[in-house]
Amino acid sequence: MALTNGTRKRTPQTEFKPYIVALLQEVGGEQHVDDLFAELEARMEPILLPGDYETMPPQNEVRWRYNARWARKALVDDGLLMPPRRPGFWELTSEGRAIIVD
Fold it and tell me: Quick one: average pLDDT of 25-44?
């Protein structure tokens, strides 16, 4: 975690996980990543930090999207999201559909 003057510069990847699960639960368990990212940014806007809006080479992707993709990978490893089945879609497993998100 990068620190700037004793404070975080960007939101940790783990912070994205409950938002991703909750959003997917609200839409029935599956959504295209573009739609998910639009809603995820709106919901997380109050906690996203300046460093989250930096772009990352070589794809020039905004850091918060990159971190959300890594959070998705962790959710797959946790058994809450399905491994990629359809390009561009993120889908909850039955465990992900059943979990209670705070």
Answer: 97
